[in-house]
What we know:
- The complex is a heterodimer of chains A (257) and B (741).
- By secondary structure, chain A is α/β, with parallel strands linked by helices.
- In chain A, 35% of the residues lie in helices and 21% in strands.
- Chain A is built from eight helices and nine strands.
- A nine-stranded mixed sheet of chain A has the order 3-1-2-4-5-6-7-8-9, with helices on one face.
- In chain A, β1 and β2 form a beta hairpin.
- In chain A, α2 packs parallel to α3.
- Chain B contains 27 helices and 20 strands.
- In chain B, the strands form six sheets. In chain B, strands 3, 9, 10, 11, 14 and 15 form a six-stranded mixed sheet that branches.
- Classes of the chains: A alpha/beta (257), B alpha/beta (741).
- Chains A and B meet through β1 and α1 of A and α24 and α25 of B.
- Chain B: Belongs to the glycyl radical enzyme (GRE) family. PFL subfamily.
- Chain B: Keywords: Acyltransferase, Carbohydrate metabolism, Cytoplasm, Glucose metabolism, Organic radical, Transferase.
Amino acid sequence: MLNLNTIPIKTAENILRVHSIESFGTHDGPGIRMVIFLQGCKLKCLYCHNPDSIQTTGGEEYHIEELVQMALKMKSYFGKKGGVTVSGGEPLLQAKALIPFFKRLKEEGIHTNIDTNGRILNHFSRELLDDYADLIMLDIKHMTEEGYVALTGQANKEIAFNLAKHREDSGKNMWLRYVLIPGLTNDPKLLHQLGNHFKDYKTIEKIEIQPYHKLGIHKWEALGWEYQLKDARENTEEELQEASEILKTYFKEVRIN
Amino acid sequence: MEVKQFKSGVWTEKVNVRDFVINNITPYHGTHEFLVGPSAKTQKLWDLCKQATQEERDNNGVRSVDTETISTVSAFEAGYIDRDNEVIVGLQTDELLKRTMKPFGGFKVVQKALSEQGVAPNENLTNLFTKYVKTHNDGVFDAYTTEIKKFRSLGFLTGLPDNYARGRVIGDYRRVALYGIDFLINSKKADKEAITGPMTDDVIRLREEVAEQIKSLKEMIELGAKYNLDLARPAQNAQEAVQWTYMAYLAAVKSQDGAAMSLGNVSTFLDIFIENDLKEGIITEQEAQEYIDQFVMKLRMVRHLRMAAYDEIFAGDPTWVTEAIGGMFSDGRSKVTKTSFRFLHTLYNLGPSPEPNITILWSESLPQNFKDYCAKVAIDTSSIQFENDNLMRENRGSDDYGIACCVSYQALGKSIQFFGARTNLAKTLLLAVNGGRCEFTGKQVVEGIPEYTDEYLDFDKVMANFKIAMKEVARVYNDSMNIIHYMHDKYYYEKAQMALIDTNPSINIAYGIAGLSIVADSLSAIKYAKVKPVRNEEGLTVDFKIEGEFPCYGNDDDRVDALAANAVADFNNELKQLPVYKNAEPTMSVLTITSNVSYGKKTGATPDGRAYGVPFAPGANPMHGRDKNGAIASLNSVAKIDYKDSLDGISNTFSIVPKSLGSTEEDRIDNLATTLDGYFSRNAQHLNVNVLDKETLLDAMENPGEYPQLTIRVSGYAVNFVRLTKEQQMEVITRSFHESM
């Protein structure tokens, strides 16, 4: 489907392992975006709606130039706001290959965005964030360590906060995302904690509340994994508004995505 | 002429509405916030209209019909919905939604349509039209060749306007308001004087045509008098400007029942009068909106007498009162005015509606506030369509144009077009694998194509045969069109519209094709997979077995998209070789109306794997469900068809689930406007936009009573969803609704 003649041989440095691609993404960053869901994540969040993107094996290998060419075909629809978002999985696991990819996108004048859990802060991810990512959307999983571990299966939530601090110090734009799960993350105390932690950050343009939904359950079943949040329920409109009201006291823009 | 309040120019001395608009427009760059709701009078009237349309639906689609009168410009006494509340008056007859006989297109059609309502034309009339008066339909069939009749009856040529009126001719209805009819009559008289010998056929014909036009103008004055309006003089204020313009349009739809009778591009013209009255404090915004609401209401009530079979090609009783709104002047200024907004706003004040067929002439340079409002209206109502203003203006030459029917450019008052319906290109392709025989009957349709006996289809051989088939179909198509338009001019000349168009305008003939995506995918299957025809004992292919994968049109894949673009170019080139009546310029469209369902029934299995009977995709759309790479890839494929090869338009219908456009209203508006910019920046020509969930449509099928105004864009026009047949509704539902993953 693409003219591959112009695309060089794939090597470890120029491939991205891709779970799937959405060509008309309107929920992952500003404007209309090509959203590349990368394969592989070290967390295993209980509500993950793309559990088949967790395993680090699998996915389809794309040469970065192949992805650049796809983005160029969509570029006229990006308008002033849109662009390319890498999501996942966890895109920063492939930070090394994302550097030349984002570099190419910037050469083509395309806005870049990373949707991340923020758990990888090495020299590759720093270079990527500092030099090539116009925006990052940092997913704040939980404000307490216990909650974080219970939700993601991994310890040390501070890593993500360190990444947020790094982004703040770089002066470049950031959005926060927060999955709102009744009974697990919607305690007003947690929301106030979240607000207090970030209220002085100048780079945060907005926070997006991601209402919990169960659309991914069948994928868990297909993988033969047990879905542990079976008893959780979706938010009521009131719960969403209540959370939104609290966060509005700390952030200049709050939206329900 | 009272013109002192307006800036003069070329228009003051001779008929030139564009010049008046250019000199007097007040472009508007603000938001929609100035708009007001419907007045009490408007609401009362609209309630009566809604009640009447409900009665119409309850009564099998026809509320009442006249069997006594030949409808002409001045036929019937004045009719009102509720006189005290009408600020813009005028109906086609003396009664709301009454349908009338216009027998000059074809008397048999009138008889058939009436008999379906259990009535018959007045006996004297029947006597006249069966013994003494000849119609367009009679003339055409006198001249048709055996070959044309065969192509027509076997379904290679379809929907030809040989037994109904051709429509498409757009009178410049603004002229009546700006100049008054006396001025127009004098102007036509002067034109006629200047048409002198030697008296060859065309000169004699033109003199006769202008004489007819002058008579029609006089009849328009009579029509006005029935409503106590002095149309002989120019409109003096905004209310009169709207009223005069409507009367001119009414004259057209009283005397003609063309399939599509567009309004043109009146909003910005009317704005000049409205702006003037607002400035002078004569009216308020409430009155300005009231004029437009009531004008639009009247346009929604236009009806023609149609037989049931007509519904197969034009479902949902459309009238195509197409009003083009927006666009840019060639000098770079925007044509958007407050009245552009007021027209769109009728979709809130009166609710969604297929008519008038509101068409936004889109340019990236339009004021952002207007673009956003258009996007909002599309999202909220699924009632409007978008066409590429930059592309049409730059390729066709005028910045003062309307859209005839769905997608066809027409410079207002300067040019007309001859409507040509369409040929079935998918069926033409089947000729290539059947030795030139019809795939159903085995009748020889085209000579010179060798019988195909290979086990697998070979791309080069099929293409060579397909080119022969296209050449032959083009030839017969052209023959039929020349006969049709010769006869239409002779027996059912559009004298009212033509009276409002320059004498001897330029003409383009509007050929069309259907089945483009099937042709592209079939050629792709033959080229990239292995296609094995299954033949019956007569050697006709009844099915195709495909081994392997092939790229489908609609996925932004050049391998197949080029096949689509080339098929359009090839057929257009064949058409361009042929001589046309009145030296019209050949143009072509990729458009199906709703006949994509009936084309499916009339086309056997195709090499792309489509089974016999499966509906075609509408217009230039990819086949349902085959555009798997998302909305943008689908749009990009269609955008590759070169407008220069299809100057009469390339229709694409785009359906998207609201949530997929974004999570907030602001995002949805922004993303739709950006999508339109993106699509049209790739030189695409047209986009119908539906923003709705399939569930809504399914529910409307179950509970039609709850969705009387649910409107959906189908192919260059919109319909009331509940007025489609079940089959057509199902076809709409199986279309690709773009959704996020």
